[in-house]
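Re: your question about Protein THEM6

S., sorry for the slow reply, the queue was backed up all week. Below is exactly what I fed in.
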Amino acid sequence: FFTRDDEHQVATAGHYLNCVCTDWTYFYSIMFSCVLLVGLLVLYMVWDVNYFLRCVVTLGYGMLFQRKRKVTEETSIYSLCTTQDVDIFIRHMNNARYLRELDFARFHFYGLTGIYGKIKAKRGGAVQGASSVRYRRTIPIFNAYKITTRLVWWDEKAIYLEQQFITLSDGFVRAVAMSKQCITNVNVIELMKEFPGAEQRPEKPAELQLWLDSIETSSQKLRKDK
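Result:
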C-alpha cells in the first residue's frame, strides 16, 4: 500500500516530468523557429524570392478572379512604388524596376489571353528578343500605378507588345515600352489564326517600324564587327 509520502513523491516526480517535457517542447519549438528563419534568410540570399512570389500572385489572381481576354484586348495590372523600387535618392522608381514590372504585366497578358498555353501546346516557347523603354515622367514613391499591355503586331517569328505605365492619381502615361517576344518552334501567323479577331494582322504602327529598322541597323553593324 502507498503511504502519503509515497503519493507525494509520485506527484512530485510527475510534476518534474511534466516540466521536463514542457521545457523540451519549448526548446524544440525555438530550434524549429531558428532553423526556419535561417532557411528563409538563405533562400532570400540565393533566390529573388519576391520576384517568384509576385509572379505566382499575379498569375493566380488573374486566372481566379479576372475574366479571360481576347488576344486583341488590353490587359492591366496594378502596383505601388514602394521603398524597394526607388533609386538612391529615395524619391521615385529606379529605371531597372520598370523592366521588372513589365515582366509581371507580360505574364499576366499571356495568362488571361491564353496565348502562352497554345504556344506550349505546340511545344514552343517565348523569349524576350528586344525591348525599348521611353521614360516620360518619374513615378514618385508611394504612388499607385497600372501597367497596360496590348498586342500591336506580329510576324512569323515574334509578337510585339506595347506597355504603358499610368499613374492612377492623374492618368498620366509615365513610361511607354515596346517589346519583341520571339516565339520559338511555332509559326506565329498560323498561331494567331486560332484566336478570334486575330485572323488578319493589323497595320504595323509607324513607331514599331522605326524601332525594327534600328534593330536591323544594329544587327548589321554587329555582323560587320565580327
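The chain has six helices and five strands. The mean pLDDT is 88.

Happy to talk it through on Thursday.
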